[in-house]
Amino acid sequence: MRLVHLRIGSTGTEPTADPIASRLAELDVRSVRASDPAGIDAALGTLDGERVLVDADLAGLNLALHRMMRRDLLGSVETAVLTREPIGYLRELGLPAGRADQLELARTGRTRLVGVIKDDSGGVCVDAVELTPWTPGQPWWVRAVVDDQRLCDGEVRSLSVRRLGPSELRATVRLRRFRARSCRGRSLQLACDEARIVSDGRPRERPRAKRTFWSEPELWLLATPDAGQLG
Q: In which domain of life is the source organism classified (predicted)?
């Protein structure tokens, strides 16, 4: 399997200091560095049947998948990941913790469609979304429904959405006095005072007052271990 090593931003070390750099050189992997959407788009435009090996932290991975989805490539171009931090959902899929093992999986693993969280503005999320007041410290009103269950209708501190499985998410609202309430289902609909939305650690650029999130069970074509069963 031919690989394109897509390095998002800085790895924190020079390529020669990366413990898998020599292995990448042995494999004659084509390496491309990108630090912004235009750079990622340019790299995606050069693909010629290769599998994309995304080398990134969680926010960088989110950005790469967002650009792939905008080009309608997320479900058709094979991908693999080299992570720079633990990512809960990928661990549940069986992704090895070490980068050397992740590289071997990228080379030899079979791909399958796995799930992501989507929203009605074209956003995509691998692990979790966090919503807070656009103006910190201000009262924040939220009305939220998970499937047919009312999660909240009133003033809250924050709201989070996390993937649980192939077609399920969990929404958790944090109330005043440190109380919390959660609901599980396929989708979350909310209307609120202006909110700051952070997907996988990557802030969205504008405040939002309405949003629908849902768990899309088969969208991202990813190399996973055969033992991984969660979609």
A: Bacteria
